[in-house]
Amino acid sequence: MYWDVLKVGSIAPRTLEVKFSDGLMGTVFIDYSFCTGVFEALKNDQTVALAFTENGVVTWPNGLDLAPDTMYWEIKNSPIHRYVIRLPT
Questions:
Q1: Regarding beta strands 15-20 and 25-30, do their DSSP bridges make them parallel or antiparallel, or are they unpaired?
Q2: pTM of this prediction?
Q3: pLDDT in tens, 66-85
Q4: Which of 30, 22, 29 is nearest to 72 (CA)?
């Protein structure tokens, strides 16, 4: 699918740069409000930096992953190609 993630890298604390299979690139910032429950491990910047791609999905060694379709649409529709993952307020 066009939203498959081909490349991911850590570029700043809790910030990832992603490249999708159709060439779209952007950043994903993981807000502390999102880091609860199973995602609590992402409070640790060193853990976030371990992100890699598996079958087109951003994932971590502990099994956490992020939905690539949501990332794609949020980045594509952002004028600065940035997606901030946070809990709704």
A1: antiparallel
A2: 0.92
A3: 999 999 999 999 999 999 99
A4: 22
Cα four-point dihedral sign 18, 20, 23, 28: negative
Q: Which domain holds residue 36?
A: 5-85
Q: Give pLDDT tens digits for 27-70.
A: 999 999 999 999 999 999 999 999 999 999 999 999 999 999 99
**Which CATH number goes with the domain that contains 11?**
3.30.2020.10
- How buried is residue 84: exposed, middle or buried, by Cβ count under 10 Å (0-12/13-18/19+)? middle
12: Cβ contacts below 8 Å, ≥ 6 apart: none
Tell me how many domains the chain contains. 1
